[in-house]
Amino acid sequence: MKSVIVVVGLAFAVNAHAEWKSAPLEAPAEAVRAEADQRDLPAVDGVVRYLLDVRLDIDAEGRVTRTTHEVKQLVGRAAIEHEGALTVGWSKWHEERPTLGARVIARNGRAYHLGQEAITEGGGGRTDTVMFSDRRHLSAPLPAVAPGAIVETRVGVREHRPSTPGGVWEAIEVPPGTAEVRVWVRHPAGVAVKAAFEDLPAARPSVSAEQWSVHLKDIPASSSGAPRIVISTWPSWRAVAAAWHDVSVGALPDAPAPSVAKLVDGLPRDGDREAAIAAVAARIHEAVRYTGVELGEAALVPRSPAETLKRTYGDCKDLTMLAASALRTLGHRSTPVLVRAGQTPPLETATPGLGAFNHVVLRVEGKPPIWVDMTA
C-alpha cells in the first residue's frame, strides 16, 4: 500500500510502514526481535536502520539536554567494523560527562547489555601540530555483535552552561536509509523553534506552546550530501550578528595595545589599503603562527590581540582580530566576519546560529571592500 504526502505542491511517495512501537532498551527483547522481523527493509552499508529518536530539552537558561535513541540491525560482517562500538564526544567547558546505554539482541533472542566498566574515556580533539582541543570522548565496544544482531543505543549529553549566548543551534545527522526519524524539542513558553531539513524532504512539524516535534519516514538510501535536521531558537540573524560583534570587534579597545602598536611601528598611516593589508599580514605571519588551541570558550570566542601576540600563535579568529586591530591603528576600518567554509552544506537562512559557521575572515572596508583570509 502506498500513501502520498503533498508538501509545498510536490508529491512524495512514501512506504506506509507502521511506526516503531518498542521503546529502545525498555521493551522486552523478544518484542523488539519480533517487531524487527516483521519489517522488510533494505540495508545500507550492511545496516538496517529502524529508528532514530532525538529529544532536546531546553531549560530557561538555554541549556540543552540531548537524548538520542537508535535501533538498527547488522546484516553483514563488514558492518560490525564500523558499528561495533558506541562513541560520543563532549566539551567539558559546557557539557557534563555523557551517559551511554546499549542492548544487543542476538538472533536467538538473547539480550546482552553494555557494561559500564567497558566505557573508556580519552581526548577527542585533534592531536596534530596545527589544531588542539580539550574536547573528550567516551567509547565502548558493543557486546555480542554479529550478523543479524539488533542494536539499541541511548546517548545522553547534558549542558551545565549554555554553549552560546542568545539561542540554541543543534544539527542532527540523519543516516541515509533510516526508516523512521523522530525529533522532539521541549522548550520554555515563548521560545520559537525554527528548523531546516538539509538533503531531506520538507516536513510539517507539530507545534504547541512548549513543544516542537517532527516525524519523518523512509529517508532515501542515497544522498548527494549529508542529511541532517538543523534546529535553532535564535530569534534572527541580526541577533547572531550582535552576539558575534560583542565578542569580536566590539571587544577591541579604542587604543591599540602597546604590543600591537609595536607590531605596526614604521608602517604608514592612512596609506594605500592593499599595501597596508600586505604589510600587516606579513608582520603578523612573522610574529604569530597559525595554531588553533580551542580550549573552553576559546573554541568560540577570539583571544585579544595582545594575548595572541604574547602567545605567538592563534587560530583563524585570533589572527583576524589581530589584523583588525593592527589595521585600525593604521587608519583602516575592518570587520571580522563569520563564514561557512569547506565542503559543508549551504547555509540555511531559516536557522540562524553561531554554530552554523566554522571560519572567520576579515572584511576591510572601502570601495570595494577587500576580503582577507589570515590563514591563507
Task: Give the structure's gist in a few sentences.
This protein has 376 residues and is α+β, with helices and mostly antiparallel strands. The protein has 2 domains: 22-233, Immunoglobulin-like (Sandwich), CATH 2.60.40; 240-372, C8orf32 fold (Roll). It has helices at 29-37, 77-83, 237-247, 258-263, 273-287, 305-311, 316-329; strands at 2-7, 10-15, 47-58, 64-74, 85-91, 99-105, 111-113, 120-123, 131-133, 135-141, 150-158, 169-173, 180-186, 194-198, 206-207, 211-217, 228-232, 289-290, 292-294, 313-314, 334-339, 359-364, 370-372.
What does this structure look like?
With 376 residues, the protein is α+β, with helices and mostly antiparallel strands. It has 2 domains: 22-233, Immunoglobulin-like; 240-372, Roll (C8orf32 fold), CATH 3.10.620. 18% of the residues lie in helices and 34% in strands. The chain has helices at residues 29-37, 77-83, 237-247, 258-263, 273-287, 305-311, 316-329; strands at 2-7, 10-15, 47-58, 64-74, 85-91, 99-105, 111-113, 120-123, 131-133, 135-141, 150-158, 169-173, 180-186, 194-198, 206-207, 211-217, 228-232, 289-290, 292-294, 313-314, 334-339, 359-364, 370-372. Helix 6 crosses helix 7. The N and C termini lie far apart (56 Å). Mean pLDDT is 89; it is low at 1-16.
